[in-house]
Amino acid sequence: MFIGVNFIDSSGYPDCRPEFIESFARLAALATRAGVEGNPCRIHTPLIGWTKAEIILAGTRLGVDYGPTVSCYQADTEGRACGRCDACRLRRAGFAAAGIPDPTRYQAL
Q1: How many domains does the chain fold into?
Q2: Do both 34 and 56 map to the same domain?
Q3: Disulfide-capable partner of 71 in 10, 41, 87, 103 (CB 3.0 to 4.6 Å)?
Q4: Strand partners, 106
């Protein structure tokens, strides 16, 4: 299983910590048939220690269109980011640090 959690720019969300991922993997090994039978699910977190700029640059190299994506947890019904929360501020700062224009649709700030 691959999950795109990131601890560096996570605003301290507890489920983005390496300790949480490790604990979840141990739980899954105990709570699933595959785990009990000796074939536990492996959890990969390739972005966990990357900066937001590193993630944006890697995605850009891979052809990711960030235009339709949102990091905001408070996007409106039209999918526009609030522009004020930690996730929005970190996203804007990441695009700026990467030297790439931020294509995010924000609500009026």
Answers
A1: 2
A2: no
A3: 87
A4: 81
Question: What is the extent of the structural domain holding 26?
Answer: 1-50
Helix 52-61 to helix 86-98 angle (10° resolution) is: 60
Domain's final residue, options 50, 70, 90: 50
Which amino acid is present at 38? G
CB-facing half-sphere around the CA of 37: CA atoms within 13 A = 5
Residue type, position 23, single letter = S
Non-local CB neighbours of 81 within 8 Å, separated by 6+ positions:
70, 71, 72, 74, 75, 87, 88, 91, 104, 105, 106, 107
Q: Shortest CA distance to 57 belongs to which of 44, 66, 69, 49?
A: 66
Contact 107, 80 (CB under 8 A): yes
pTM above 0.90, yes or no: no
**Tens digit of each residue's pLDDT (9 = 90 or more) over 40-99:** 999 999 999 999 999 999 999 999 999 999 989 899 999 999 999 988 999 999 999 999
Distance CA 59, CA 61 (A): 5
